[in-house]
Amino acid sequence: IKALQVDGGNGCVAPTSQTVGDKSYPISRPLFFYVNNAKVDSNAALAPFVDFYLSDDGISSVTEEGYVALPDDQLQATRDAWTNH
Q1: Structure confidence by residue, pLDDT tens digits, 14-41
Q2: Closest Cα partner for 20 from 82, 63, 73?
Q3: CB-based contact 45:51 (threshold 8 Å)
Q4: How many CB atoms lie within 10 A of CB 16?
Q5: pTM of the full predicted structure?
Q6: Burial class (CB in 10 A: 0-12, 13-18, 19+), 19
Q7: Helix-strand-coil split of the chain, %, nearest 5
Q8: For residues 36 and 13, what is the distance between their CA atoms, to the nearest angstrom?
Q9: DSSP letter at 38?
Q10: Strands of the chain, DSSP E
């Protein structure tokens, strides 16, 4: 896959962590992850998976694979929501 600059009407923008994060790269989109809390008790793999996904190691894996991590405030809000589920 070749990363391409895209003109969304304001000139070409390269796909970087910053331009994806600030939404100035016009063809990026967020990836949502929804957990069915009713399944947490019946599926032994679910809670450990989400715990890892939201851990520092999990977030490092996200960025190592070329995805853009959530901003710190959004990541903390997501961790808090998971902790209080």
Answers
A1: 999 899 989 999 998 888 889 998 999 8
A2: 63
A3: no
A4: 13
A5: 0.78
A6: middle
A7: 45, 5, 50
A8: 37
A9: G
A10: 6-7, 12-13
